[in-house]
Amino acid sequence: MADENLHQPVIKEYLGEYTEKVLLPAMSNLLDEKFDEKLEPLKTDIQKLRNEMQALSAKVTNYLELSDKRYLELKYRNTVVAKWVKQIADKAGVEIDLAELEKY
User: Fold this and answer.
1) Within 10 A of 101 (CB to CB), how many other CB atoms are there?
2) What sections of the sequence does the record tag as coiled-coil (predicted)?
3) Cα(89)–Cα(82) distance, integer angstroms
4) Domain span at residue 52?
5) How many Å apart are CA 30 and CA 36, to the nearest integer?
6) Looking at CB atoms within 10 Å, which of 1, 29, 86, 99 has the fewest?
7) Which residues 6+ apart lie within 8 Å of 79 measured at CB?
């Protein structure tokens, strides 16, 4: 038993060094490879989502610009029609309040 006790510190030291110098770096490399394998598809998917979001943002921006333009056109048209109605009403001798017409 005395001989076994003498060798234990040497074995522990060897295993400690082996673990530190060989096993841990090998495990680290293996984990890095596995992580990279899983990470690449995620990066690709994230880039696709970013591209789709940019495309949707551009579409929404274009739609809003067209909506604003159409709104201004309709507002102008409504003002013109209100003035025509006012002129016709004035010629017919009917009192019309333009503020009432512009509400609609």
Assistant:
1) 16
2) 39-66
3) 10
4) 2-102
5) 10
6) 1
7) 102
- Residue-wise pLDDT tens digits, 10-68: 666 767 777 878 888 888 888 888 898 989 999 999 999 999 999 999 999 999 999 99
Give the integer Cα–Cα distance in Å for 73 and 80: 11
Angle at 67 between CA 81 and CA 82, to 5 degrees: 10
Contacts of 78 (CB under 8 A, 6+ apart): 102, 104
pTM of the model: 0.48
Residue 72: count other Cβ atoms within 10 Å of its Cβ.
10
Which pLDDT does position 3 carry in this prediction? 54
Instruction: Record the tokens describing residue 92, joined without a space.
Output: 């017919």
102 near 82, Cβ under 8 Å? yes
Which alpha helices (DSSP H) does the chain contain, by range? 2-18, 24-92, 98-102
Number of independent structural domains in the chain: 1
Stretch 81-96: mean pLDDT: 87
